[in-house]
Amino acid sequence: MKVKSSFFCSNCGSESPKWIGKCPSCGEWNTYHEEIIEKQVSSAEKEKVWKKATKEKPIPKKLEEVSPLSTLRLDTQDQELNRVLGGGLVAGSIILVGGQPGIGKSTLLLQLALRLNKKSLYVSGEESEEQIKMRADRVGCSNPSCYIYTEVNVSKILKEAALLEPDLVIIDSVQTLVSPFIDSAPGSISQIRECTAELQRFAKETNIPVFIIGHITKEGGIAGPKLLEHIVDVVLQFEGDQHYAYRILRTLKNRFGSTDEIGIYAMDAQGLQEIANPSELLVSPDDYHLSGSAVAASLEGLRPLLIETQALVSPAVYGTPQRSATGFDLRRLAMLLAVLEKRCGLAFGNQDVFLNIAGGIRVSDPSIDLAVVTALISSLQDIHVSKKMCFAGEVGLAGEIRPVSRIEQRIQEAGRLGFETIYVAKQKSGGIESKKFGIEVRTLTKVEDLLREIFG
Ligand code: TYD
Ligand code: MG
After folding, report:
1. Are 232 and 347 in a shared domain?
2. So what's the pLDDT on residue 35?
């Protein structure tokens, strides 16, 4: 066999016969690496293939004859996972689960294999059989027809999978797989591409769904991200802070459902637990009437989430005051502080400011601004804000409070959880019927209003 090598971009997977400094397709610098690839078929040989085929029956079928997938969804026995997959697992789909090392990807999928009351195959190239057994004992579920296989060779894996005919295959992880047809090292772009393509062919031909675990690179992307995202049907990302118990499963791509859904779990000594009502856990009881915290009615994906924001403002001991934030953008915090200085004349300039979002959850929803601002003022003035109140609004540079999306849903959730008052921005389309939600809805237009309403 004639060995041929080529250069691949490690970011987007595009190919070049020569080394180049800047990738013409994704614009990244210094991402090209040489890899040995299999023998290429010459164009003359390719031509022969289709010329020879004219006498055979065509394989393509009529679109009308294809059965719709919606009827074939499999219940994963995990409501959070069902939700992010768009209502269950589609037969023959291929799902990539990405996340940082140690976040709980192996635990999540082993639990899936064990909970499913069907035949499942868990293939690991990272852990020994004993290690997997130990983990299975820890998560405390058992499935008599859960098979494990420690192997990295894709051809062997697929041969065994075809013999076993499971209802689900899990591959931990794509970076350990090797295809015997490719000469480069495991984890390289051409290996990952070839192995994923083989798994995809397997899934489509046998109608068995395949989960693939993928590690995230230090830049935060799944290795060779673009290239894998093209091949697979669903991309899920498992995220959270290792030092906190909460984990969020997010959909980045879904051919069979929406990408707005999220699943929330907590990692404890018995593995990952589904959290159906996260709001109840993310707001601590108001026992001591402490200053510096306020509850935000935020939205994660399509789910309303009541979450506590905590601030600590104290005179700076060293020359330069410190600003630190967990779960919130530091630059946004600086902007909110500047707005409070300018619009309300509150002096944060000589104060250290620390901000924390409960549970280590990273919130990207701008509606949390109003609660952050309230927590900051509460800590600065040492005035307690009742936890019967919650807030939803974005704060603009002029100190105006802007309306946020799906406000009715947020109000409804706050009402359901027993909050008495919710502060929102003045809505464009008239008022909100507060009676309907069993909660008082108060509107604010500027941060000055907030100061007057709450801090007197
Ligand atoms: P793991 O699933 O191995 O992560 P990944 O596959 O994403 O690298 O999760 C490992 C972490 O989870 C490890 O720090 C231990 C913790 N863990 C628990 O806290 N409780 C448990 O029941 C299990 C199985 C793991
Ligand atoms: Mg793992």
Report:
1. no
2. 81
69 lies in some domain? no
Number of structural domains found in the chain: 3
Same domain, 269 and 298: no
Q: Which residues surround ligand 2, an ion (CB under 5 A)?
A: 106
Q: How many angstroms is it from 197 CA to the middle of ligand 1?
A: 28
CA distances from 124 to 140, 144, 177, 425 (A): 19, 18, 9, 51
Rounded CA separation 178/403 (Å): 52
CA of 84 from ligand 2 middle (Å) equals: 20
- Residue 118 Cα, ligand 1 centroid: separation in angstroms? 24
What's the CATH number where 410 sits?
3.30.230.10
Question: What confidence tens digit (pLDDT) does each residue in 336-357 have?
Answer: 999 999 999 999 989 999 999 8
How confident is the model over 11-38, as a mean pLDDT? 85
Tell whether the torsion through CA atoms of 362, 366, 367 and 372 is positive or negative: positive
Is 65 inside a domain boundary? no
Using CA positions, which residue lies closest to atom 22 of ligand 1? 271
pLDDT given for residue 161 in this prediction = 94
Range of the domain at 445: 280-455
Give yes or no: residues 248 and 292 share one domain. no
Average pLDDT of the chain is 86
Mean pLDDT of 84-94: 90
Question: What letter would DSSP give residue 273?
Answer: E
